[in-house]
Design brief:
heterodimer, A: 570 residues, alpha/beta, Pyruvate-ferredoxin Oxidoreductase, domain 3, Rossmann fold, 4 domains, 8-stranded mixed sheet, 7-stranded mixed sheet, B: 290 residues
């Protein structure tokens, strides 16, 4: 008998188009409604049919929110899945499913439990029911709430008629009973605690949190050109555009997308673009215009490995330098990188206030791993979101670029007040007209690249410190690696190691330096050249001592972080 | 009618005009001022989004809201300005290089999108600000510093292109005809939907072929032309010498702002709106179950 306690990692593997997403959906929703904490993440190939895609679902007593390498239960829907995940198999791994989907050489290495899914589906009436049966088996293993499963199937297949609903329920029951039997027979033992509170929690993905955060922050204009892995934000927004009463427009290219977002802000709306590295590269000219014209804009960039097309559906944190240095000329910008789904919601909302207040581009850096991850979380507090608008009424002699102490000129918009607003991408005087004056040119450069930047820096968000301030070691990381590092640290359970997580990546507040000095600094990032370590060096003259880097397009796992940390800690 | 003089800016930076003496841009500016005045528009209600080039300096020399942006990008910016606040009169303005070369793709898709904006193209068939290179509309055979052997690329025909794509309003004028040009610009602004006006004007410094005289001799005003007849409009559009002036084509259809979900129930400009938190709440509630 193979037993799993507290935390079970289930992996579904199959070809694109085989419907493993349906199984994933059933499992995550139904197990959450049964009171289990769930976490899910997928890795997939850039193709519409074939290949191998896998989804990891963690079902746990406590909240877990990170990717693990180990597979406890694997359900292969085709041959080739086991070799694809070979490194993640252990002698404890249980493989459930058809024998034909398991290569012979693995039969002795794993615990294979034959489940005749095809035959069972045939009994129900069609191979179409295979996925529902598979989902039923897993829900059965956890003695999940069958009523919830039934209700889910009714909702999901209701539009296809009662017959299809009933057949699916029958299929689910068959699977469920088999799952329960496997436990009763003692083939598999599962001991995960349920929590009543989890049932009332929301299941939200990184993609959804970015989109909902944006709308909560006042986004009412989204322009985009589809590009993985950023498109989900546009899809979600478009599907709810009528309810939100916002504009979501798919445009001819990324150049149009960002220029439209600039135009929306210029007229007082709150515009955003969603893109990935390649699309953002096309936006760099307009980013520079935003810098010069002091035109607010919010950019969501979901990173994937480059250069060029790279690995379109995989993950990396390789575009920090791109957003840090993008755009000709010198101008300030704000870079944010959420670490949790909650961060993605609140931080994206706040990005709009920041853009409005400082009149700069605000870039939200996520990545494929982050946008495709979801888990259950307690209710989001909408009362925490404040839409702060900084638009002023113009007078007859309105100066769009009035020189001020803090570098911020009160921003008016066309049609609001007695004056006219003149914005300009050429160097300009205070009214916005072209100038080539020496003194003015200098003052305007300083206004943007020094005064405004310093104003932002003074108000920048400090990193979150996890652990003791006097710890010998400090890990520095940013963005999506937050939970995987936290979980590794919980396992390590050492007092001499602290973690600084940066969700506000740039500009960094000066006080950060004090948190780094005298420490053994361990930098953890998903890129080749340790771009964030480079930024710390540039900003504070601080050198990191150890770098833990990953750049194969796959997310860090908890085990991987643990192994790497053990290598550098005394 | 209000006086065209209210469109004369009083800002210190608007007095030193960067156009050459005799430049057609002066004429276009005067045409615009009169058109605005005759339409009773107030400076604060009009927005000119310009690209880059001599034509694109217009926002500095006329008293309306302005945004002097990037080469080729005025159309997407203007589209969004109008969408964010449909009560504004929005004009995208630039030269032939701006609109037909660098911004060509945006022009194509703006025709498909049909925002209620006016696209004014100062078409002098040459690049002025960069000093005399060929533009997409430069005539075959013209020798320039960068095409010393003479231009061999087929000139771009913006009128035929726009009609082929079923643009909502397509016109051409020559700025040397003041009154007629004012009328055409007024019609273009009043037209609901994307209005494209190709405005011939001489570049006195770099185009020695297409002069004031040349335009007078090589153009004619269309009479008895039915702009609702697309085939007839297309026939006129491919005439080459003399070149027809006037409104070629009109096709009234729903605009971008009318079609986007944002304005289906509520006409409030976007900038005056608050986020729909109750809708977010509903979605989050749904995320608790399925």
């Amino acid at each position: 008998m193979v037993e799993f306690k507290e935390d079970v990692s289930i992996v579904l593997g199959g070809a694109a188009g085989q419907g493993i997403q349906t199984v994933e959906e059933i499992l995550t929703r139904v197990l959450k409604l049964s009171g289990y904490n769930v976490y899910a993440n997928k890795e997939y190939m850039s193709r519409v049919r074939g290949g191998i895609n896998t989804t990891e679902i963690r079902v746990s007593s406590k909240k877990v929110r990170a990717f693990v390498r180990r597979i406890n239960i694997l359900i292969p829907f085709k041959r080739g899945v086991l070799p694809w995940v070979e490194k993640r198999l252990t002698e404890n791994t249980v493989v459930l499913g058809e024998k034909e989907n398991v290569e012979e050489e693995y039969l002795s290495k794993v615990n294979f439990v034959e489940v005749p899914l095809n035959e069972m589906a045939k009994e129900v009436g069609s191979p179409l029911y295979l996925n529902t049966i598979a989902a039923g088996v897993v829900v059965g293993l956890f003695h999940g709430d069958f009523e919830a499963l039934e209700e889910y199937l009714r909702k999901r297949f209701g539009s296809k008629g009662e017959e299809v609903v009933l057949k699916n329920i029958e299929a689910a029951r068959k699977g469920y009973e088999l799952g329960v039997k496997l436990c009763e027979k003692g083939t598999i033992g599962i001991e995960v605690k349920r929590d009543e509170n989890v049932k009332k929690e929301v299941l939200l993905s990184g993609t959804e949190a970015v989109a909902l955060g944006a709308v909560a922050g006042g986004m009412n204009f989204l322009s985009f050109y589809p590009m993985s892995p950023s498109t989900g934000v546009a899809v979600f927004s478009a599907q709810h555009a009528e309810d939100f009463e916002i504009i979501v427009e798919q445009v001819e290219d990324e150049i149009a997308a960002i220029n439209m977002a600039l135009g929306a802000w210029f007229a007082g709306a709150r515009g955003m673009v969603t893109t990935s590295g390649g699309g953002f590269a096309l936006m760099s000219e307009a980013l520079s215009l935003a810098g010069m014209a002091e035109n607010p804009v919010v950019i969501h960039l979901a990173q994937r490995p480059g250069p060029a097309t790279g690995l379109p559906t995989r993950t990396m944190q390789g575009d920090l330098n791109l957003v840090l240095y993008s755009g000709h000329g010198e101008f300030p910008r704000i870079i944010l990188a959420p670490g949790s789904i909650e961060d993605a919601f609140y931080l994206t909302a706040e990005a709009f206030n920041l853009a409005d207040k400082y009149q700069v581009p605000v870039i939200i850096l996520t990545d494929q791993y982050f946008v495709d991850t979801y888990y259950n979380l307690p209710e989001l507090d909408l009362s925490k979101i404040k839409v702060e608008k900084y638009i002023v009424e113009s007078d007859e002699d309105y100066k769009r670029y009035k020189l001020t102490e803090d570098g911020i000129s009160p921003r008016s918009i066309p049609g609001y007040g007695k004056g006219v607003v003149v914005a300009n991408g050429n160097e300009h005087d205070e009214w916005g007209d072209i100038t080539e004056d020496e003194e003015l040119s200098r003052l305007m450069q300083e206004k943007r690249a020094i005064k405004k930047l310093e104003t932002i820096r003074k108000n920048a968000m400090m990193p979150e410190l996890i652990g003791r301030e006097d710890a010998k070691y400090v890990i520095v990381a940013w963005g999506s690696t937050y939970h995987v590092i936290r979980e590794a640290l919980e396992v390590l359970n050492r007092e001499d190691i602290a973690f600084l997580h940066f969700k506000w990546v740039y500009p960094l507040p000066e006080k950060v330096k004090g948190l780094l000095e005298g420490k053994v600094i361990i930098d953890i990032e998903q890129n080749v050249t340790a771009q964030f370590a480079e930024l710390l060096k540039k900003e504070f003259g601080v050198e990191v001592h150890h770098k833990i880097l990953k750049y194969d397009g796959r997310p860090f796992s908890v085990e991987e972080i643990l192994d790497a940390l053990k290598g550098v800690l005394e | 009618m209000i006086s065209p003089l209210i469109f004369e800016p009083e800002r210190p930076g608007s007095k030193d005009i960067a156009w050459c003496p005799g430049c057609g841009n002066f004429g276009i500016r005067n045409i615009l001022r009169s058109a605005f005045a005759e339409l009773n528009l107030r400076p604060q209600d009009v927005v000119i989004i310009s690209g880059i080039g001599q034509a694109a300096k217009m926002p500095h020399y006329i008293n309306v809201n302005g945004y002097h942006t990037l080469h080729g990008r005025s159309i997407p910016i203007a589209t969004a300005v109008k969408a964010a606040n449909p009560s504004l009169t929005v004009i995208a303005e630039g030269g032939d290089g701006d609109m037909y070369a660098e911004g060509g793709n945006h022009l194509l898709h703006a025709i498909r999108r049909n925002p209620d904006i006016t696209v004014l193209v100062h078409d002098n068939q040459i690049y002025g600000l960069t000093k005399g290179q060929a533009s997409p509309t430069t005539m075959l055979g013209m020798k320039t510093p960068t095409q010393p052997w003479g231009v061999f690329e087929e000139p771009f025909n913006p009128i035929a292109l726009a009609i082929a794509l079923d643009a909502s309003f397509v016109a051409r004028t020559f700025m040397g005809y003041f009154k007629e040009s004012v009328e055409i610009i007024k019609k273009a602004i009043q037209h609901k939907g994307l209005a494209i006006v190709d405005i011939f004007h001489p570049c006195v410094s770099f185009n020695k072929v297409n002069t004031y005289e040349w335009y007078r001799e090589h153009t004619y005003w269309m009479k008895d032309h039915n702009p609702y007849d697309r085939e007839e409009a297309f026939k006129r559009a491919i005439e080459s010498d003399p070149l027809p002036l006037g409104v070629f084509y009109i096709h009234e259809k729903p605009t971008f702002e009318e079609l986007v979900p944002a304005y289906k129930r509520d006409k409030t400009p976007l900038w005056q709106r608050r986020p729909k938190l109750e809708e977010i709440r509903k979605i989050l509630e749904g995320k608790k179950t399925f």
